[in-house]
Amino acid sequence: MDLDLHIHSNVSDGALSPAGVVSAAVEANLDVIAITDHDTVMGVEEALEAAAGQPIEVIPSIEISASEGEVELHILGYFVDPTDEALRAHTQAAAERRELRMREMVGRLSDQGVEITFDAVSAVSSGRGTLGRPHLARALMDAGYVDTVPEAFDTYIGNPHPAYIPTSLLNPEQSIALIRQAGGVAIWAHPHFRHLADWTPTLQRQGLQGLEVYRPRTPRHRVFEMERLARERGLLVSGGSDWHGPDQGNLGEYRVKATDVSALLAK
């Protein structure tokens, strides 16, 4: 059984609608997917409806942005209840905060002589959910400032650059609690290796249940180290492509096997 447990739709910063993601996943012969949109579950219902009668299962999921000091990290929530009132309240608050953040980032770019309007960024999005930096990156491409999304991050909007502003919604403990109260399983998304050993025990005490270990560009020796850490601490493991759209290649080019994440699926 083939899975991809980290995919974004245009309800956050992906290119395809939730139904479009399901269609692409079926075409790629994936058996199970998780659409993990940033700070929103608004695409879950559409994805579940699109998957009905198709040879695929959709896990209701979310990716919550968390901040601790100057560090931003993301917590994946699998098997969440998309009708949970607290989760839906977070979705609304996140959309408002992300719009404010985007306006501030556009202002900082203008201070650097990079003339991008908020309306141009908004036009890139579906207008359905939360705004993210990939929307801004595509607007920079459309305006001719960069040729690719990675170039936009490397040149203008990546974490080290003056235009970057953290999302600043919840801290990790609040994010984990929100997921678990909604019936979900909390997994640390793409953990930065620099923070892994120091942060994992604290996050686990706060209710973290696993690590995202399997990703397309993670060096194999890092995968082994994360697998070992997860075993030693009794944590679940997960994996996925973090796919946002065709500019990253075709959905399904990266996949994980059910045997790799069997404990998560059983959970």
Secondary structure tally, helices: 10
Strand content: 15-25%
Query: Quaternary arrangement of the chains shown?
Result: single chain
Overall outline? globular
Q: What gap, in angstroms, lies between the N and C termini?
A: 17 Å
Q: Encode the helix/strand succession as letters.
A: EHEHEEHHHHHEHEHEEH
Spatially, the strands of the biggest sheet line up as: 7-6-5-4-3-2-1-8
Overall average pLDDT: 93
Number of separate strands:
8
Radius of gyration: 18 Å
Point out poorly predicted stretches: none
Give the helix proportion (percent range). 40-55%
Structural class: alpha/beta
Question: What would your notes on this structure say?
Answer:
This protein has 267 residues and is of the alpha/beta class. Helix 1 runs parallel beside helix 2 (44-51), helix 4 (118-124) crosses helix 5 (133-142) and helix 8 (193-205) runs parallel beside helix 9 (220-233). Strands 7-6-5-4-3-2-1-8 form an eight-stranded mixed beta sheet. Helices cover 42% and strands 17% of the residues. The two termini are 17 Å apart. It contains ten helices and eight strands. The mean pLDDT is 93.
What is the element layout, followed by pairings?
Layout: E1 2-7, H1 18-27, E2 32-35, H2 44-51, E3 57-68, E4 71-78, H3 85-111, H4 118-124, H5 133-142, H6 149-157, H7 172-181, E5 185-189, H8 193-205, E6 210-214, H9 220-233, E7 236-239, E8 256-257, H10 262-266
Parallel strand pairs: 1-2, 2-3, 5-6, 6-7
Antiparallel strand pairs: 1-8, 3-4, 4-5
Helix pairs in contact: 1-2, 4-5, 5-6, 8-9
